[in-house]
Amino acid sequence: MPTAALNSRRDFVADAEDAPATPVFGRAGTGPQPTQPDAPTAFEIPAFEAPLGTEVPKFEPARDHNDRRGPLRPKALVSTRSRLRGEAVARMFRAADIAALTGLTWAACDLTNPLGVWMSPVGAVVPFFAGALMLILGLGSTRAYGFRAREGLLHHLMTVTGAFAMTGAALAAILWTAHAPDALAESITIWFSLGLVLSYALHIGWWMAVRRLRLSGRLTPNIVIVGATKNAEKMVKGALERRDVAVLGVFDDRKGRGPDQVAGVPVLGEVHEMIGHRIMPYVDRVVITVTSTAQTRIRAIAAQLHALPNEVTLLMDVGDSGSASVMSRMADMPLAQLAGNRQDPDRAAAKRAQDLVIGIIALILGAPIMALIALAVRLDSPGPIFFQQRRHGFNSEDIVVWKFRSMRHAPREDRGSRQVSYDDDRITAVGRFIRRTSLDELPQIWNVLKGEMSLVGPRPHSPTMKTGAVESSRLVAEYAHRNRMKPGMTGWAAIKGSRGPVDTPESVRRRVALDIEYIERQSFWLDLYIMLMTLPCLVGDRQVAR
User: What is the reported pTM?
Assistant: First the structure.
């Protein structure tokens, strides 16, 4: 990697992605312990072995002494995998409101009518539920679930009051027109007042929760800008005003000739330095702010960014009176997608639910098998039962993957660059069996439940994996595209015969092509099909080194 790329990352602490596989839960190795770098201005990759029973340390970006963080970067960066989508949070709050208002309405009907809800006359029940429905629709129409970054609590409660005011006026008109009995009108008034108090209490909680999530960085989209232009300055100033998007940095090919910062946001490097930059796993979107009339430059930049797993979009030139509707979450400026995988929240939620349900069932059913394997590994050869190794996860984030130890334990491993061969002399007797049957992968159920992996997806590769003497990521331009989805315990490539090491350029290209094909086709039913086909494929293939 070019020296300039390393120098542009001085606001981050060194990560241990190239550290050896770390054994845990057993006789730990005697390798060197972590050491602190003399200064935080360079990347030094420390080799380490975790002490017995400890977790691999998680390295987080740290503040640079020169304060190159900029005015919009949150105190602690959160990876894209761990952040929440605003739409999903709003849906959750709305579902809670619906449940609470429905419960209150049911209780009011039950108390008002001695015969209960089911035996009461329709005229005595319908006004309550009709009012509840109007309240739910009114909260949506007044944008009570918008939770803008600078919206104060009082202003938010006023939007809730607006929904109740509209509903109250409608209910009063209906009751007056229908000449409703005084007892019914009084009951509805009491129910309506209790509903207002309940909604106030809920929305105070929602407002505080959103505020905490924004402060923690889990609800604020992170972007980086390409091009230190006037459009970039306009976008940063809009973000500073609204505070609903975090601009982490700017990349520009004119570094050295252009400005060092844009409205306070630092220029981190040139465009080519974005590939593999430490900040990219935290970035939701890359925004190109080069004027849209500069087609040649845009095409050149898009070609350079094609290898990124992040979504890449172009900021359209709309002038000072641009539309605010499309960019309400991105500093009020419209974007056009150029590359990357735009995530579908519904599909992502269904996939996560599938992972949790099937993963928990698999963990319960597989616990006895895992206990037997752990005992066999412990008795077969000296060393720990498990080991952890750093792999690339979603958006090229470094994750720590669990496996049963299948090779002889050594104080220092080969750092994941040497791939396993079919007759590898490092594999133990038990290890050969559990690798051939892929039982060594069972502890990765824990990675699935934590949300770092999925049951189905591209297999996680080591960041330093080599094919021959060349890093595998350099053989295929679209290599990083396979990180546009969480890695999986099994996948489309696995059932199509691309399992084990990729020891030739052709095998790397085929693996990447199959992974990208899966990402484009992914669905709930395709995942189920891949799971069902995994066992027959593994049983029928005894020649692939795994």
Answer: 0.62
